[in-house]
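Researcher: I'm preparing a figure for a lab meeting and need a structural model of a single chain. I don't have an experimental structure, so a prediction will have to do for now. The sequence is pasted below. Please return the structure as tokens so I can convert it later.
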Amino acid sequence: MIELEDIAYVRSGARDLGVAVRFATEIVGLELVASDEPGVAHLRADARHHCLALVEGRSGVIASGFTVADDDALAGAEGELERRGLTVRRLDASAARSRRVRSGIAFDDPFGNRIELVTQQESLARPVAFGRASGITEFGHLCLDAPDVHEAYRFWSGTFNAKVSDWIGDAACLMRIDPVHHKLAVFKGEGPGLCHMNFQVATIDDVFRNWHFLVDHGVEIEMGPGRHPQSTAVFLYFLGPESFTYEYSFGVRRIEHDAAWRPRTFDPAEPGSIDMWLGPTARPTTQPQVRDVQDAEGAVPEAPALDPALSV
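Model: Understood. Here is the structure written out token by token.
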């Protein structure tokens, strides 16, 4: 069993890096971290050096990262994944540096999602210099797509320490790797991709202030404000450039005693099963997985230099 410690980052490709970065900073509220790496913008929401890297090139999610304890745990994970028949590649020094980690491996899950396991993700001691006052407190969770969420659960629970918290019929599996109700979710989708990336905010007021801000700035609201009965979180999903869906949420449930929790199943067709407040619901837009620009180390080819106007 491979023990995942936490989610680490999302790497996403952007044809128009400037537009994607400006949306992430000026609309979402993330901090653009100063960097001299060409064609890569690192964006920060909490103590992590970054939780989102936007890479100039083909549009699409490149990889989703998770941390493991140390290099011994990484070596054990590499061997375990290979024994299960998965092709595993080591991140080279430049790829590890771009991710601000000591070392890492990359592999594709059985559904085609590129996953990276890394050690010693860098933190920054200074407070986050948010792009605007959105109330973000941390990178909350990520959601991937797979054609069969029950098969996806079998993979994540059989290979890793993921535990199902709740089911939304055959449409979604919500999984935890720590007491938070879910750090990883898998939604039913035709192909691999990133369904959405979640950021926790400090108060319910932040959710509604952000809603008004997004509407005033012409941002497409995909769903919400509403409240999920599974995690109890108040949510707001909205669409950014490059078909990248962001989510703000507040009030996520914690499951402190695994033995006492019994996963529940909700029928997505039943009123209130997605939104307890009975608002209109819609499936978030998935950013498809990039398949053909990754090199042997799970990275991407060198991209053009970042617009100097974006360097802060």
